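[agent] plan:
  1. take the single chain provided in the ticket
  2. run structure prediction with default settings
  3. attach structure tokens to the ticket
  4. add a short note for the reviewer (M.T.)
[agent] executing step 1
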Amino acid sequence: MEAYTSFAQVYDMFMDNVPYDSWCEYLKTQLDKYGITTGTLLELGCGTGKMTRRMAQAGYEMIGLDNSMEMLEIAMEREAEVDPEEEADCETAAMDLQRQPLYLLQDMREFELYGTVNAVISVCDCLNYILEEEGLFQVFERVSEYLEPQGVFVFDMNTLYKYEVLLAENTFAENRDTGSFIWENYYDPRDKINEYDLTLFIAEQDGRFSRFQEQHYQRGYSLDTIKELLGKAGLEFLAAYDGYTESPLTKESERMTVIAGKMNITDK
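[agent] step 2 finished; step 3 output follows
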């Protein structure tokens, strides 16, 4: 589960192709279907808080949870960047302070909260970092424990197709003025685990580049396995879509968005 240490410094730069704004609108639309337009939301694997902040600005009381201290430090630094005294509208500034997310350093398999939440979200394939079915079940079980009776769980995961065909044994590289990386993939079809070997070159203030290496592991899960684990944890499978759309999954879907809720939840 240890990941995003050195990479935390340049994570947002290399993730600038992620359409956070449109994903945020999609999440709000899906939550609205189940009557969740306000209240407390938990984001699992919040990283540097890109989605957490957007959902907070949309009016939700946000809790961001991640097991990377480096990521959370960046998230909290950004929350402190806005000086309320510099805001033209003091009332708006006070409201913004009230909506600042609470960030927690916890493992999503064992997290603990002070109370229940109206919804749980997870984006950017964070749940694929859970490498065993038992671990994924533990996540679902914790979600079920802390969800309100009509609560909803919306999350995305990379598909088996993406690991088997698109990532496979391929190597990717990207170069920027402030950093670059080489990303090598090794996929084990038996265990359904993809190993990412990352070599990072991060620009320092003196103009030199520091070299870091990290290993990340993700696992692919079939939709049938996800459904089974959700049910075992007391969650009802509601829908699965091709990425952040309302189109059905296909054999070539790269990302799935899954919606679940407390058992016996009814679509409003």
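[agent] step 4 note for reviewer: Confidence is low (pLDDT under 50) at residues 1-5, 83-95.
[agent] ticket updated
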